[in-house]
Specification:
Layout: E1 2-4, E2 14-18, H1 22-34, E3 38-42, H2 45-52, E4 59-63, E5 65-66, E6 69-70, H3 71-79, E7 86-91, H4 97-104, E8 109-112, H5 117-144, H6 156-169, E9 175-178, H7 185-195, E10 203-207, H8 213-221, E11 222-223, E12 235-236, H9 238-241, E13 246-250, H10 257-269, E14 271-272, E15 281-282, E16 286-291, H11 295-300, H12 306-312, E17 315-318, H13 329-344, E18 350-351, H14 353-361, H15 367-381, E19 386-387, H16 394-397, H17 420-438, H18 443-449, H19 454-463
Parallel strand pairs: 2-3, 2-4, 4-7, 7-8, 9-16, 9-17, 10-13, 13-16, 18-19
Antiparallel strand pairs: 1-3, 5-6, 11-12, 14-15
Helix pairs in contact: 2-3, 5-13, 6-7, 13-15, 17-18, 18-19
Length: 478
């Protein structure tokens, strides 16, 4: 093992070179040292893994073939480390197929022998830029809310939410997470799971609105062979399969009444009865329910069982809509843009001040998810690293509105021939079309933008005759 470092060499990054040919190791050491990097070189997999275990490596450059070992072993060891270094693989000329497969396992890139020095310099620079961006990303998340990866928000409302998450994470009580579509209910459920003793166990999210009654019960409670057509073997439901983990029942307000009765008994008894079976099976999983509906109103309307509501509503975590915490918009936009910059390999991506100002004034009916989609769209379509107002949708810029609004204080024109129902239907239809356009034809995303369940959104499309062939080529589902 040799190490080469001079003066400020470590400031640019520490590179581990792995190659069983001494001449290649010495060549790469000299080349990279001249560029100002700290370089350590080793000949085999074991020495590389030993060094990676000590941390402090920013980039690994490894030959794919290492005598009796493989660069893939080095890659896997690097990926297993917290804050894993980027990995570039060197492969023989004309045989890049294995290296491409390694990229699917997480390698940053590969380079073929013989390679050009400038090509290698650029590849090293880009790989280290990506790592720096990833580290800054992690630091931003930790600074905005220590201990909850992916949670961004420093407003008083969100700090109260995350404080409650910390308190309930260690218990086993059922938690009900409420909030409009796109506010981050699954993120909160995952945070509760990850902050508690169940973090190493499975987290299984399940959408209660996505399946019919029979399939819903089979997925949750399991079934036995022969219970219905196609049941060719016994199958454990999610509540049992999760073990000591967590099951998230998303859109629980959409669950059919008959299934609600069975779920209530399951939660009370902590046992499930698989479809077609007379035997009951105990389960240990924690249950977290989520809904964008006001379940109290659903109970009054007879669409949700009161006893199940009280069983689920042991602890409630209510997420505020983004319009009520506009101070978090710039932070969230910066967080999403840093992720896109890393994904696209464009570390220079940034917002123009006027772009952030427009975002901060927009009400975001689709909440955080809508903001994330806007940032992704802007970063992907922009030719420049500076994202100006033109990268935002027209509605955000104020160039157009999906529905014409009457000016404040002005009364609508009423008179002979006016029909309120028709006007309401026209407005609803325009909103549906606008949401479908903004969501690129993806119905589940359009439903989220409007704050509707998928089932309700699909019903309204049918009501207005907006069939799948309305927008040729658009996807009809999620």
């Amino acid at each position: 093992m040799t190490a080469t470092q001079g003066g400020e060499a470590g400031a640019r990054g520490h590179i581990l070179v792995v190659d069983d040919e001494l001449s290649m190791r010495e060549y790469l050491e000299l080349l990279l040292q001249r560029e100002g990097y700290a370089v350590t070189s080793v000949a085999g997999v074991k020495a590389a893994c030993d060094l990676l275990a000590l941390d402090g490596v920013d980039l690994v450059i490894s030959d794919l073939k290492l005598g009796t070992g493989s660069g893939l072993d080095v890659l896997r060891a690097a990926r297993a480390r917290p804050g894993s270094p980027e990995v570039v693989l060197i492969t023989a000329y004309g045989t890049p197929a294995a290296a491409v497969g390694a990229m699917r396992e997480g390698a940053y890139d590969y380079i073929c022998k013989p390679f050009d020095n400038e090509e290698l310099r650029l590849l090293v620079q880009k790989a280290l830029e990506k790592r720096t961006l990833r580290q800054e990303n992690t630091g931003l998340r930790a600074r905005l809310f220590p201990g909850l990866d992916g949670a961004v928000g420093q407003s008083a409302r969100m700090q109260a939410v995350w404080s409650l998450v910390e308190k309930v994470a260690s218990g086993r009580s059922t938690v009900l997470v409420t909030g409009e579509s796109g506010t981050g209910k699954e993120l909160v459920a995952r945070a509760i799971h990850m902050r508690g003793s169940r973090a190493a166990r499975p987290f299984l999210p399940f959408n209660c609105a996505a399946l019919n009654e029979g399939t819903l019960e089979s997925e949750l409670f399991g079934h036995v062979k022969g219970a219905f057509t196609g049941a060719t073997h016994d199958r454990s439901g999610l509540l049992v399969a999760a073990g000591d983990g967590t099951v998230m029942l998303d859109e629980v307000g959409e669950m059919p009444l008959a299934t609600q009765v069975k779920l209530l008994r399951v939660l009370q008894e902590r046992k499930v009865k698989p479809v077609g079976s007379a035997a009951e099976i105990p389960f240990q999983a924690r249950v977290i329910a989520a809904t964008n509906r006001r379940l109290e109103a659903e109970v009054k309307a007879g669409r949700f069982r009161e006893d199940l509501f009280y069983r689920l509503n042991v602890i409630t975590v209510e997420l505020p809509p983004l319009r009520e915490r506009s101070g978090d918009i710039s932070l969230l936009a910066g967080y999403f843009l840093s992720r896109m910059a890393e994904e696209l390999g464009r570390p220079g991506l940034r917002f123009a001040p006027e772009t952030l100002a427009l975002l901060e004034r927009y009400p975001f009916p689709g909440n955080v998810r809508q903001l994330q989609n806007m940032v992704e769209r802007a970063a992907t379509l922009s030719d420049s690293d500076l994202l100006g107002p033109s990268t935002l949708p027209p509605a955000v810029r104020g160039d157009a509105e999906p529905v014409a609004r009457a000016s404040e204080g002005a009364e609508p024109g009423l008179g002979a021939g006016f029909n309120l129902e028709r006007h309401l239907d026209d407005s609803e239809r325009r909103y549906l079309l606008a949401a479908m356009k903004q969501a690129g034809g993806v119905k589940t995303r359009a439903a989220e933008l409007l704050g509707l369940s998928f089932r309700s959104f699909r019903y309204r499309l049918a009501k207005h005759g907006l069939t799948d062939d309305l927008e040729p080529g658009a996807p009809s589902d999620a």
